[in-house]
Amino acid sequence: xxxxxxxxxxxxxxxxxxxxxxxxxxxxxxxxxxxxxxxxxxxxxxxxxxxxxxxxxxxxxxxxxxxxxxxxxxxxxxxxx
Length: 81
Fold this sequence. Notes:
It is flat and about 45 Å long. The protein is an all-alpha fold. It has helices at residues 3-17, 24-47, 61-78. It folds into 2 domains: 1-49, no CATH class; 51-81. It contains 3 helices and no strands.
């Protein structure tokens, strides 16, 4: 993720949601926290052969929703309900 993207997303959220704490430093800390805590969990899941789906959340909410629907369609055939 570029510095410009890190700056833009929190600024947009801060403007829309009134979150003064959403800034480059906060976004950077969130990424560091994920790398420290989330990445090892994802590695463990992958090693255990648990399907892990990665989404591109940089698009519009509708784009992300379409990705989720596509994953649901793919998983439906792989999992007996």
